[in-house]
Structure formats: C-alpha cells, structure tokens
Design a protein that fits this description.
The complex is a heterodimer of chains A (454) and B (289). Chain A is of the alpha+beta class and 454 residues long. Chain A has 10 helices and 20 strands. Chain B has 8 helices and no strands. The chains are: A alpha+beta (454), B mainly alpha (289). The interface between A and B is large, with 58 and 55 residues. The complex binds protoporphyrin IX containing FE.
Amino acid sequence: MEARVSGLRDLYEDFVRTFGNVLFAVCLFLVWGVLTLIGVVVEQGLEPSAYFDAYAAPVARAIVRLGFDNIYHSYWYVGIIGLILLSLTVCTFKRVIPARLPPLRPVRIDKIPLNASIAIPGTVDDVRAKVDAFFRKRGWQVRERTFDGAEWIFADRFNWARRGVLIAHLGFVIIAAGATIYWARGFAGEAAIVTGQTFEIPRTHALVRLDTFGYKIQPIATKSGMVYQPIDYVSHVTVTGNDGVAKHETIRVNQPIDIDGTLYYQASYGFAMRFDVTHNGARVGSLSDRTLMEGEALEIPGTLKSVQYARFVPTVDRVTGQPGPDPRVNDPAVVLNVFNGDAQVGAALVPLQTWIDLGGGWRIVPHTYLMYTGLQYRYDPGATLVGVGAFVLLAGLVIAFYFLPARLYVRVDEGPEGTATVGVAATTVKGYDIYEKQFGELTKALEGNAWTSS
Amino acid sequence: MDIVLMKLALAAYAIAALALLAYFFTRQPALRAFGAPLAVLGCAAQFAQLIARFEITGIWPLLNLYGSLSLFAAVAVLIFIIFAIRYDLWFAGGFVIAIAALFLAYATTWNEGTMPAVPSLQSYWAKIHVPLVVSSYGAFLVSFVLAGLYLVRYYVERSLAKTAAMATAGGQASVAATGGWLASFPSLPQLDVLTYRAVAVGLPLLTLGIITGAMWAHEAWGAYWQWDPKETAAMSSWIAYAIYMHLHTRNAWRGMASAWICFASFFVVLFTYLGVNIFIHAGLHAYQR
Ligand code: HEM
C-alpha cells in the first residue's frame, strides 16, 4: 500500500517536473507551430485523391492517414493544445506564481549582481528614515520588515504588474474555453437558396426565403488587362424566426443578420437553371419543372444517359465563342456534360434558349436562370468568451512588456566615522541587464540626495 | 504627386542606408549626421505618399500588396527611428533602412493603379487590421536586425577569444582589437535587451492585429476563425515570438539562443506576409490586384 502511494507520488512529481518546465512548454509550442504551418502548406479539406495527384504517393498517404488533410480538427492538434493548457496550468502554479510573487525575505545583497553600497552621514535610524522617504517620494511602494533583529526596507515598483504574466495566461485559457464551448454546443452550415425559394435551416428551424439577389461588378482597366471587380453582393430575404413573424431583411457582405442568436452572412452566389426537356416534341414536365444547381444532373428516363449542368457562363466571348471573363450576365450560356452511365460522352457550351439533341428524340434547352444566394450561418455561444479572452491576453502582454516590476532590498548598517552604510540590491522579473542603467541612476540619486539633504 | 513622393522616399532611403552602413564600419559622426535626417525624410515622404494616395483616390491605400508593403517599410523605419533616438541605435540603421528600401522597391512593382475594394474588404476593420499587422511586421524587422547584430557580435567575440587564448595562453580577448567598429557596438546584454524591446512592440501589435482580423472575419465571413492559410500563418508567427518570449525568461537561454530564435522567427513572418500569397494561392486573404 505504502509502496503504491509513494509510487503515485513519484509519478505526480515527475509529471509536475515535466509539465512545469518552461522548455517542455516551449517544445509544445514548437510542435503547435509546426502543425499549424503544415496546415498552411498542405491545402485542407480536399478529397484524398487530390493529395495523390499533388504529392508523391508516400507523402499523400501520410497526409491522409495522419489526418493532415484536416489538421486543425485532428486529434494531434486538439491534443497538443490540451497539453499546452495542462503545461500552462502546472507552470502557472509551480513556477510563475512563486517566481513572480515572491514573499518579502532577506537576501545576501552582495550576491545579487545589481548591488551598491553607499556611505551616508548620520545615525542608522536617521539614514533609514531618509532612505525610506527617498523611495516613497519617487513613487516606490516601501515596506519595512524585521528578520532576526535586522531591519529591512523593501521597495517595489510596479508591484501590481507582476501579475501581467498571469493575466496573459488567463486570457489564453479563456480563449480556449470559448473555443471549447463552440466545439461542444455551436454549429455552422451553408444554405444555397434560389430566388423565390424558402429554406429551412436545420437545427434552428428558421425559415429564410430569398426574394431577390443582386450584385454589382465594376470593370476596371489595369496594366495587366481588364479586371472585373465585385463591388457589392446583396440578398433581400424574408426570414421567420422563433416568434413566427416574417420580416424583410437585407444581408450584405460585412452586414450579417441575426435570427434568434444565429448569424447569417453573405458568403457566395451562383446561377441555378431550368431546362425545357422535350421527347419527340412533347414537353416532359417532371424534368422541365426542376431547378438545377451547378453540378446537378437530369437523368433521361428509359436510357442510361444523364445531362449534368456543369456551370453557368454569364458572358460568351463574341469573337472566340468561348467563355469570357465578364461575370455580368450579357450573353449567357451553360456548360453541359453528357454522360452515358458513368462515362462522359460529351460536353458543350450551350447558349440559353438554344437546344442540344441527345438522340432518341430527346432535346434539352437551357431556359431560364435563377440566381441563388449562398448564405453561411453560425451559432457560436463561445464567441463572446473568445473575444473577452483575447483582450485579457492582450492586456496581460502589455502589462508584462511595458511595466517592469523591480524590487529593491535595502539594509542600513552602522558605518565608519558617523556614517551609515546603505546596502541596496535590485531584482526584476526580467533579469538584471534590463535594469542596469536605471539602477545606476537610482543609486547615484540616492547618494546625492542623502548628502545634500543632510 | 504620390509618385514623386515615392521616388523621394526611395532615394532618401538609398542614400541614408549607404551613409549609415558606412557609419557602422567607420563610426565617423559626420556620416550619422548625414544619414539620420535622410532616414527621417524618407519616412516622412512615405507617410505623405500614403496620405496623398488616399486623398487622390479616396481609397484606403493598404489593401493591395503595393500599399501594404510600403506601409511595412514606412513603419519599420519609423519604429527604428524611435528606437534610434531613444537608445542611440543609429549604427544599426543601415541594415534596417536597406531592407526597408528593398521592400519598398519591390512594392512599386505591384503598383497596378487604383481599384475599389471587393465587398469583403469594404469594412472599417480593414482600416484597423491591416496597419496593425503590418506595423507588427515592421517591429519584427527591427528585432531581426538587432538579433542579427547580437549574433555578429557574439561570434566575433568568441572567435577573438579563441584567437587570443591561442596567442597568449589565457590572454584576454580584446574587442577593441577589431579596429573599433565592434567596440562601439552596444554590449551583448544591451543588444539582447534591445531585441526584446523590439519584440515587445511587435508581439502586442500582432496580437491586436490577429484579434481585429478575427473580429473582421466574424463580420465578413461569418466565423472569427476560419483556418484560412493567411490567418493560420499569422498564428505561426505569433507562436514563434511567444517561444522567443518564453525562452527569454530563462537565464540560460537569454542571449545567443533567444537571438537565434528571434532571427529565425522573422522568416516565419516573411512566409506569412509574402510566402503564403506567392506559394499558396488558395484562401480568403489573396491580395487584390
Ligand atoms: C504552454 C503554455 C505556457 C506555459 C507553460 C507558460 C509558462 C510561462 C512561464 C513559466 C513564464 C515565466 C515566468 C517567470 O519566470 O517569471 C511565462 C511568462 C510569460 N508568458 Fe507564458 N506560458 C505559456 C503560454 C503562454 C501564452 C499562450 C502566452 C500568451 C502570449 C503567454 C504569455 C506570457 C508572458 C507575456 C510572459 C512574460 C514574459 C516576459 O516577462 O518577458 N504564455 N510563461
């Protein structure tokens, strides 16, 4: 039993020693940084085949097997952040708090690299009072303590700022908490809504109807040719939330709307198509009434054939007859792919209102285009917390970087011939080099001041 | 008007860089007296150029690579000037200004004329986020040069110590023996502190830049964090400097090791700033052209 307890204690101590080591934390940071960069270099969220096309087979296999195709949601990534948080917690209690908030205690002044010894005329008590007043006047927080009969003066500057690190660390933890809340309770999705249609958002059951979609594109002549710069995308929608009341709203890029706490954003747009399908001259209603999104196909009944609406071409170049660069609808056409079973047997650029013959008496006419809007929606109950955490982190950084807490240890002892010897040493939370100059100035001022005012 | 100012800035930087590089090696005060005002002039011309461009076009001039890189050069030089005045750092100016001038010259190759912003960039966040991030990169450039100088001094001192030890067994290495150019460098601890101070400017700016970027993304794209290549790369830069900052709290790692980390971190910044756009085209952050 006892052996087990002591074994557990050893384990705990090893754990604290490892996770409380800043170098270990730095290694975790390094792994975090490298994983993050892998996600930048390796395009995320593609089909496995895309990686095999882009990389040598062993690399592609590693990417897919190790989850590097979706790295930010992989166990690696979440795990490393978990370890960082663990290490942060252990370090904060085992290292940062003892190092940054040390108790007042006596030191060997001459063992501290920043030290000075100043002889000042007067009795020990007089000089101590003078030293005390000197620091107070300069805005230092002065505390006097007696240890083993020796009287010590402790003077602190920016003592409150010792908590800067703790605040920065807390900010990081709050951000992680906010992100976890989203992960546990939030959701996001996309909705493509064709003009005139109503879409029911899964989960929230809000109804969104697209009344009209508009976009504005400006052609601009640049040195490298004509550029068509999008200026505005706008969806006019009718939304019905929990209260059952239908409201008209406008969604633009940068101007999302909020329905019952879920935000809806303008993300994309596109063109849906209606086709007139005829068989031996007779309109086939079941196919002609459908609205197709890009990528969808019509199966021709009684055959293995299907026609895929591959994409919309807003402008066909009059000279070349090929798709032109202008995204505004001038001379529209569609790209259709024809399949026989799984095999593609043809592709064509078909202007609107013209027909292609599929054989067997089947004809298909791209008839009407309808714009659709791509909305992104997101419910993120952790967003506020992430925001708060970010600002706490920032405040912590500013405090830790711009306020340098310093502590002076001062002892006044009897000196030769009616003088007292003032021993001063300084420590800061960032080593000694950073304070060397100020310490020199401070001790010089102390010396000068004590002499002149006596 | 703005083209004239740009040419003036480039010319001023080029001459200032040469003068201050010469000052670095010779320590002739005249060279500093000549180079420093030129650096200030170039920096002022650059800010005037950005304002002029805004006045002429009515469009925030930082949303393309041309504007962004010119702001980067301007801020790097501005932060350097503030450091130089405060900590007497003119000796390092040649390097900072030469690098800034190279970036500025590169920027001019991206001048495509004026163009209105695409919808997602038509946001006041763009006006806040871009300058913050670019300013942090400016500060990191200064820290990069200071860390580089730390390493130069460190390795020169070390080789001098070795030579001296070989020449007179146990003899003292004399930095003054190098003819003075190194002798009037700040000491290694001073350079270390200066590097840390430059990072202390850059890291909060980058943090705030990432935060405002997230706020903007929240508004424009519906999620404050999308794992877009550019924002994730910015996070890697942030992590790199967080590593620097933590190593710098340890006595054993403060100095040479942390200088190397700081030096290397700037390459992560460069990758974030330019590499992502050059090598990785996907993503929401492609600069408009
Ligand atoms: C693995 C997670 C982390 C661990 C284990 C950790 C640990 C530490 C330790 C031990 C110190 C030094 C305290 C001292 O010796 O006085 C420190 C300082 C600091 N940490 Fe962290 N930290 C972590 C993450 C972070 C993060 C994410 C931030 C946000 C940027 C941060 C910000 C700071 C700041 C600002 C300082 C003060 C640096 C200075 O004064 O130069 N830390 N940290």
